[in-house]
Amino acid sequence: MARRKKKKTKSRIKYLLTLLLACALYVGYEPLANIIQPAPAKVEALPADVLLPAPMEGTPEKILVRRGYTVSYNREHNLPNWVAWELTPEKLVERESRTDKFLPDPDLPEAEAVTTDDYKRSGWDRGHMCPAGDNRWHWRAMQESFYMTNICPQNHNLNRGDWKELEEACREWAQREGKIYIVCGPILYRQRHKTIGREHRITVPEAFFKVVLCPTSNPPRAIGFIYKNTSGNHPLDHYVNSVDQVERITGIDFFPALPDEVEKKMEAEYDLGLWKR
């Protein structure tokens, strides 16, 4: 009887070991399969500083942090190099009315600060880079959106037409996606530039860019736009470019904090259809 009991115990142990091994193989099957055939790369969380472009080499820039945006300001041209901000559904709540009060930037010396008088009778609109409509969630954000460091000379038809339509599209994307990052600014081609201004000489851009990143999609996706600073009436897809192309034209490195493999793939591809869903 003792021998039979011992044999039975060994049999049970063998059975338990087999069961444990089977469980281990079952649990480990998916990770093992991923090693053999890796799943598409996922980005669970993006760095907090992914919004800001890389520092610019050989270009004057003064970084100014506002309630609703960050601006890289170029004192040589009296224009922003770029303006960057995060847009979320919470920031689309209209708590504040549009002020329409353009102000010299208080962070610049009085002698250097562009004023709204510099635009008078120039024939150019005071075009927002970070729009007032994206800053109605807070009174200070609204006020600071009218600082002249956030403004460029812009064609009237562009400012009130196709550029405004892109701003409205960005709000729709933020509402649907939950969060987007936007960077925009003027483009100065290698040529002699027009200028305006009474006391301060302001360079008139030949074009404008805007790049948009959706960090909540998996993997993140991005798209770029380039608008000539002229009158026009075209659909959104007329202005679409890859972020890579916008980088080549502007010399700005967008979203450098993204993982390299994600940044490379995302900035090379663009499909406006993905944003219209």
List the helices and strands and how they pair.
Blueprint: H1 2-36, E1 62-65, E2 70-74, E3 79-87, E4 125-128, H2 139-144, E5 151-154, H3 156-160, H4 162-177, E6 180-187, E7 195-196, E8 202-203, E9 207-214, E10 221-228, E11 240-241, H5 243-250, H6 260-268, H7 272-275
Antiparallel strand pairs: 1-2, 2-3, 3-6, 4-5, 6-9, 7-8, 9-10, 10-11
Q: Which key terms come to mind for this protein?
A:
277 residues; alpha+beta; Extracellular Endonuclease, Chain A; 7-stranded antiparallel sheet; two-stranded antiparallel sheet; 7 helices; 11 strands; 20% strand; globular; disordered N terminus
Biggest pleated sheet: 7 strands, antiparallel
Q: What is the spatial order of strands in the main beta sheet?
A: 1-2-3-6-9-10-11
Find the CATH topology of the largest domain.
Extracellular Endonuclease, Chain A
Which structural category fits the helices and strands? alpha+beta
Helix count equals: 7
Q: What is the residue-mean pLDDT, rounded to a whole number?
A: 86
Give a structural overview.
Helix content is 30%, strand content 20%. The protein is an alpha+beta fold. It folds into two domains: 1-39; 48-275, Extracellular Endonuclease, subunit A (Extracellular Endonuclease, Chain A, 3-Layer(aba) Sandwich), CATH 3.40.570. The strands form three sheets. Strands 1-2-3-6-9-10-11 form a seven-stranded antiparallel β-sheet. The chain is globular, with a radius of gyration of 27 Å.
